[in-house]
Write a structure and sequence with these properties.
heterodimer, A: about 450 residues, 10 strands, B: about 190 residues, Rossmann fold, 5-stranded parallel beta sheet, 4-stranded mixed beta sheet, about 25% helix, globular
Chain lengths: ~450, ~190
């Protein structure tokens, strides 16, 4: 299993592509800034959203029960899934009950987390993802590299090739307008012929038992309103207490995500239409465990806008797939170790701890602090590779002896000056893609002693 | 055997921190902002066409100019001579060939150009999504400043389904190039009526 560093190295082979990826995401970050700066009460909104989510996490069990009562009264069937396996089995049982072998699905990172598509495919059920970006990665047999922009890593020429192969567009066609039109025709046929549609959930309101799904394309609505059965999968942390709180979150979500004032569609589902069945699956899958980790529970406040990815200097230059986890980037790096510390032990280290993620987060999650805290937990629990933990331990030891630190610094500078080939080689990861700097003649401490120390 | 429901709820209850209070939603309202003017500006920015009108005759004239001939469906009896105002087939698939739907929005939101369309004004849930072009009629006095005001007016009213709709269906999934008309309407027209 390759770690973040190894996967980033692969992504970094094509330098112009890295630059393009970096600039595209930074462009979205700038759009987000323009939107945020246009709202004088932006910081009030962030603070209010953060406090609402703090309240939700502190009273989640009661809100879940309240939501269930109201949803049932509205005519929605409510299911509870302790883990991914149970979630997938529930979906499968609904499909079996209706003797359906084909399903259309709009964006749901939770179903990615549960590997629903693989599970259903193995059970002979075809799933078509209807969000354009998700359909593209599905055709390419990949996974989304970004939670809001699933195929942000792909060039239009590559998408054109996939569409030529699977949707019959002309060879070499790469115009986004033409490709989107081809997808529109292909997916309209899908919407019209599927009897079951699955969607994710952006917010579920405890007070009213309704849930809100946000899309720009209208794909969730096209699937659902043409179907006989609507299944919505949601993580238990998606609950908000009252309907008026939607005002706060809908103002923040899309401005943070893509720099739009709101998504084209914010659909409020309260009850099935006559003759239709509506199911909601409430999924835990480690969330209640994360709730118990005091240092990390705030990660459950996330509303999945992706702004921490767009701003992250590491994400922008390493690509979403380098995180080898369903949710990539800074927020993914604090969510993933909760699911599997061993498999995702490298992710909290894939950060410079610059704090830009925490600064843009619309619900004020202390993302970079949590990355730092995960590092400590992971080292303590023995999940960090020997090289890294030995060098951290050595550093701790050296730093605790000032004389040794001074000597080590002096020897380092001597080596870089006298024997540069010892550091300018491929064994030193810092030498990759950069020249080592000319070593300073003296350390700061030596300079200080000479120039300021005597005063 | 305990059910997953009990298992999840007891685990959540055991792990949730001490109760933290809900914040007040005191709305910092910008009183200098002109709702209609701002709505028009933002709605235009996100790809809608906005026309102030004073009568349904003006709306009819605009429709004749803006749209190619095709199936028109509307909930307005005033448009009975150019549109189907009653849907006889309850099957949503029967609306796949609708070119234009003209419906009444309950309110519009100045800060983001969105309009609230509840199910009881949709004729059928699928209609505002499946049509090739969507036109919404909203009264100028029903334009509010922001989402807080919108939810204040709506309260908990939801006839079963409702949506804020802001502009035409769109995607930028291919290299961030904006394309209008992803799966839903290719265009959105707003008639602001006196």
């Amino acid at each position: 299993m390759k770690d973040h560093a190894a996967l980033s190295e692969e992504f970094n082979i094509d330098e112009p592509r890295v630059n393009w990826h970096d600039e595209t995401l930074w462009f979205i970050r700038q759009k987000r800034d323009r939107m945020a700066h246009g709202i004088p009460e932006w910081e009030w909104l962030r603070e209010t959203a953060s406090q609402i989510k703090n309240n939700v996490l502190s009273n989640l069990s009661a809100y879940l029960e309240q939501f269930e009562i109201n949803a049932l009264a509205n005519g929605i069937t409510v299911h509870w899934a302790a883990d991914a396996k149970e979630h997938n089995e529930i979906i499968h049982s609904i499909l079996k009950k209706h003797q359906v072998e084909r399903m259309v699905k709009s964006k749901s990172m939770l179903t990615e987390e549960c590997h629903l598509n693989d599970y259903l495919t193995e059970n002979g059920i075809e799933v078509i993802d209807s969000d354009l970006g998700e359909r593209i990665v599905q055709l390419g047999k990949e996974h989304p590299s970004h939670i809001v922009l699933p195929c942000i890593h792909k060039k239009k020429e590559e998408i054109g090739e996939l569409f030529h192969k699977y949707l019959g567009t002309a060879e070499g066609e790469s115009d986004p307008q033409v490709l989107t039109e081809a997808a529109r025709q292909h997916l309209r046929d899908t919407f019209l012929t599927r009897r079951v549609a699955l969607t994710g959930v952006n917010f579920a309101v405890a007070e009213t038992g309704e849930f809100v799904v946000c899309t720009n394309e209208g794909n969730a609505d096209m699937g659902v309103h043409l179907s006989e059965v609507h299944i919505a999968s949601m993580g238990i942390e998606k609950i908000i207490p009252e309907r008026k709180h939607l005002g706060v979150f809908l103002r923040l979500l899309t401005r943070s995500a893509t720099g739009q004032p709101i998504t084209t569609y914010s659909s409020h589902f309260k009850s099935p239409r006559p003759g239709q069945e509506m199911h909601i699956v409430l999924v835990d899958n480690g969330r209640s465990r994360q709730l118990g980790r005091e240092d990390f529970r705030n990660s459950l406040k996330c509303i999945r806008c992706g702004s921490c990815m767009n701003t992250c200097p590491v994400y922008r230059r390493s690509g979403g797939h380098s995180y080898h986890s369903v949710i990539s980037g800074p927020i993914g790096s604090i969510l993933a170790p909760n699911l599997d510390m061993k498999e995702f032990a490298d992710l909290p280290f894939a950060s410079t701890l610059c704090g830009s993620c925490s600064n843009v987060c619309p619900v004020k999650i202390d993302i970079h602090d949590q990355l730092y805290k995960w590092r400590q937990v992971l080292v303590k629990e023995g999940y960090v590779s020997n090289v890294k933990s030995v060098s951290i331990k050595t550093m701790t030891w050296v730093l605790s002896f000032p004389a040794l630190f001074a000597f080590a610094g002096k020897s380092g500078r001597w080596v870089m000056k006298t024997l540069p080939f010892l550091v300018n080689n491929k064994l030193n990861p810092w030498y990759k893609s950069r020249e080592m700097p000319v070593p300073p003649k003296e350390s700061f401490r030596e300079w200080y002693a000479k120039n300021r120390g005597s005063k | 055997m305990t059910s997953s429901r009990e298992k999840i709820l007891s685990s959540v209850k055991a792990n949730q921190p001490a109760l933290k209070p809900l914040p007040q939603l005191e709305l910092p309202v910008d009183v200098n902002l002109d709702p209609v003017e701002n709505f028009t500006l933002i709605a235009t920015n996100i790809g809608s066409r906005v026309f102030p009108v004073s009568s349904f005759d003006e709306i009819k004239e605009a429709i004749a100019k803006l749209f190619l001939p095709g199936r028109i469906v509307s909930s307005f009896t005033e448009l009975a001579d150019i549109a189907e105002i009653r849907l006889t087939d309850p099957d949503p698939h029967s609306l796949n060939d609708v070119n234009l739907a003209v419906l009444q929005a309950e309110l519009g939101v100045a800060e983001n150009g969105a309009l609230w369309l509840p199910e009881d004004k949709m004729m059928q849930r699928i209609l505002p999504f499946i049509c090739q072009h969507l036109a919404l009629v909203v009264s100028k006095k029903d334009i509010v400043r922001n989402m807080h005001e919108a939810y204040q007016i709506l309260g908990n009213r939801n006839p079963g389904f409702g949506a804020f709709i802001a502009g035409p269906s769109k995607t930028a999934d291919i290299e961030q190039s904006l394309v209008l008309g992803a799966h839903g309407p290719r265009s959105m027209t707003v008639f602001l009526i006196d």
